[in-house]
Specification:
The protein has about 300 residues and is α/β, with parallel strands linked by helices. The protein contains 10 helices and 14 strands. The chain folds into 2 domains: about 1-160, HUPs (Rossmann fold, 3-Layer(aba) Sandwich), CATH 3.40.50; about 190-305, Elongation Factor Tu (Ef-tu), domain 3 (Beta Barrel). The strands form 3 sheets. It has a 6-stranded parallel sheet with strand order 1-4-3-2-5-6, with helices on both faces. The chain has a 6-stranded antiparallel beta barrel with strand order 9-10-13-12-11-14. The chain is elongated and about 70 Å long.
Length: about 300
């Protein structure tokens, strides 16, 4: 998948162009419906589907004090959108100047850059532009003038409620991985970059990868059976989320540590996609390193059984 970093780069995409526009945090089932509509309609006219999203998350600019933890960082979201089959992803920088521009300016810039713009696909009741003044009705008016169609994709309903990033975030936060899975259409995952640690895990026989998550939402503290994607290959493992009370004092930042079963290699600097399959137990403090080692062995055995 080719990533475009400005609206002007749409000129590089051979049209007709079908755009799928949204924040797409989580790339959940509702987002997938919008993305799939663009892919299907582009294929029907021998065109090119382009997913358009924004970075950073608009709430980080508009209401930074209320900005949520992400379900998917920019890099994670790009991976998921590529997996849906998109050949192009346009990441529009979102800043105060962009947020203040009238909605029609944004749409006209898209139409001017695409060669040509055939269709825009958005979710139901999508709003955009300064003071959220843009809506589907405005898109249709501008489409009639500029020569593109508009597809408003109905919201996806599960258990009588709309699938949303907020609903998934709340499920992950309370540890309801089954609910998150139902809304995402896959297990909940966190993308992180492996950083050097104290190497205590290696010294006690369970080397761990210490991940710096990209502001993504963690599930509750505890131990999980996980699957880990490393350079296109999936490995089983066991992970701990929390403050490491047995070996760390005064820890102020929650950490994600993963022991990858049967893996022998250097992971420093790599991005790992950690798939939370099942909660095993809560995090707790043990009476020393030996007790911790014994518990990790039990956790690893249980995770292997879960993941078999």
């Amino acid at each position: 998948m080719e990533i475009l970093r400005s609206i002007g780069e749409l000129t590089r995409v051979r049209g007709p162009v079908v755009l799928s526009i949204g924040v797409f945090d989580g790339v959940h089932l509702g987002h997938q419906a919008v993305l799939h509509r663009a892919l299907e309609d582009a294929n029907a006219i021998s065109g090119r589907a382009v997913a358009l999203t924004f970075e950073p998350h608009p709430l980080r600019v508009l209401r930074p004090d209320r900005a949520p933890r992400l379900l998917t960082s920019a890099a994670h979201k790009a991976r998921l959108i590529e997996a849906e089959g998109f050949p192009f992803l346009l990441v529009v920088p979102f800043d105060a100047e962009f947020a203040a521009q009238p909605p029609e300016v944004f749409v006209r810039s898209l139409a001017a850059a695409a060669r040509p713009l055939s269709q825009i696909c958005v979710g139901e009741n999508w709003a955009f532009g300064a003071k959220r003044a843009g809506n589907v009705a405005l898109l249709r008016t501008l489409g009639a003038e500029l020569g593109f169609a508009v597809a408003e994709v109905p919201a996806v309903q599960i258990d009588g409620a709309t699938v949303s990033s907020t609903r998934i975030r709340e499920a992950v936060e309370r540890g309801d991985l089954d609910e998150a899975r139902n809304l995402l259409g896959r297990d909940y995952t966190v993308l992180g970059t492996v950083e050097p640690g104290a190497q205590l895990g290696r010294r006690i026989g369970f080397p761990t990868a210490n991940l710096r998550a990209h502001n993504e939402q963690f599930p509750p503290d505890g131990v999980y059976a996980v699957r880990v994607l490393i350079e296109g290959r999936t490995w089983n493992g066991v992970a701990n989320v929390g403050y490491r009370p047995t070996v760390a004092t005064g820890e102020v930042e929650r950490r994600l540590e993963v022991h990858v079963f049967d893996f022998d290699g250097d992971l420093y600097g790599r991005d790992l996609d950690v798939d939370f399959v099942r909660f095993l137990r809560g995090e707790r403090k043990f009476d020393g390193v030996d007790a911790l080692r014994e518990q990790i062995a039990r956790d690893a055995g249980e995770a292997r059984r879960v993941l078999t």
